[in-house]
Amino acid sequence: MICHNSVGYDAQIKDLLIKSAFNMNENEVDVWMKYQYNPQHMFCFWQDDKITSCLQVTKRTMMFLDRQIRVSVIGMAATLPDYRQRKQFSYLLDAAISQATYNDLLTITYTNMPKLFEAKSFQHISNTKEYWIGAPLCRSGNPFHIKQKAENLYPLYFQFMQYFDGSILLSEDEFDQLIQYHQNLGKSIVTITNEDKQPKGFAIYSTKDKQAHVETLIYFDSQAIQDLLSYISINNEVTSILISESERFDKLFPFHFPRMDKKLMVRLNNYKLFDKFSNTNVRNAKAAYELLEKPTWNHFQ
């Protein structure tokens, strides 16, 4: 049986994640439950009188053709080990798609398993790229341009997002919630400034075993990137950075070849409604994204 929410079953969801989400420890599950969990949009598969699988969908605002639309974002998903290989995730995804078809123009996800989503009419739109850069190549910037105390970051984020289309635009409350989530996971959030101490970007990253992992990077010029890398390389031997397909890091690091990470998969839920919205005649997500004149950036959801 599938239930379209998990209201009243928070303890079961937490227990399921602890037993199933092997990439998260118990503290990380606690933080996710506090800042990311939304029982109203958690689809649950029930079997043997318990929740055996779950799939959370987040509702977001996306700028598309410079107008606002509502989209569904496929997020946390987990299945108890003893109940895997039973297509429970597929059934939950069907339920989420069915609901989104009547409410949201698009459903999006970042995934390492595109085949699962292609079977549900999702299409591959773009890739996430990951650069790995050794410390000796990270010292051309000025580490003194980095401030550890991050304040009032939303205006920087909002300004940065004006360069993109087909991209989620968080409200200030949604943005602050995500910042709190990352802070409570123990990640570093720093502001990048220029010579006049004016902010020109910010970054969110984690460190472990002399390796830094930059998950979110907002910047307005290449010098900001170099300053950040110079700062991080003081205490780390290598830095990885996740970027969108359209960002040209090859100009800074021409001899580095990025690893392709997760794929952005998008489903056009209702082409008739999309035609009314866009005054076009498209029939799938790829055709919809071909209408855009700006690049996309969806790495902060």
Automatic annotation (TrEMBL):
Start and end residues of each Eis-like acetyltransferase domain: 186-256
Membrane-crossing residue ranges in chain numbering: none
SUPFAM superfamilies, per the entry: Acyl-CoA N-acyltransferases (Nat)
Pfam families (alphabetical): Acetyltransf_17, Acetyltransf_9
Name of the molecule in the record: Eis-like acetyltransferase domain-containing protein
Organism: Holdemanella biformis DSM 3989
